[in-house]
Design a protein that fits this description.
About 50% of the residues lie in helices and about 0% in strands. It is mainly alpha-helical. The longest helix has about 35 residues.
């Protein structure tokens, strides 16, 4: 039997993560989360939710490196053993792949981390 009481103030984590991944406000899902490529807005222009509390710091960069490294290393090994390309071509291809994947993931992971912090009421996102 679950003895925890459910309150109306609970914030579901999954929708907040998905909204953050889409770079949208974790509260309403409509307003843009980012002001620039990685700059989080101080507040949502649609619902007014304060977003300046976030502390994403190095988390998005760490996760980006982790994901890109784990995705590209097996692909690099497979490509090299299957096609035996020239080293310069291989380096150029996978360098571009790593950069493109990193640039795609970095703002999305930052948004997801901000969404997680908002859902768990971390770093000042809690109710006053």
């Amino acid at each position: 039997m679950n003895t925890m009481t459910t309150t109306g103030d609970e914030r579901p984590v999954r929708p907040a993560l998905l909204r953050g991944w889409r770079r949208r406000c974790p509260n309403c899902g409509s307003g843009p989360l980012m002001r620039g490529y990685l700059s989080v807005r101080d507040a949502c222009p649609v619902c007014g939710e304060e977003l300046h509390h976030h502390r994403a710091d190095d988390g998005p960069a760490y996760l980006t490196i982790l994901i890109v490294g784990h995705a590209m290393a097996p692909l690099l090994l497979w490509y090299f053993t299957t096609f035996r390309p020239e080293p310069l071509k291989l380096a150029a291809l996978f360098s571009v792949g790593c950069v493109v994947l990193s640039l795609y993931l970095l703002p999305r992971l930052k948004g997801a981390i901000v969404g997680y912090q908002w859902a768990r009421r971390l770093h000042g996102f809690g109710s006053a």
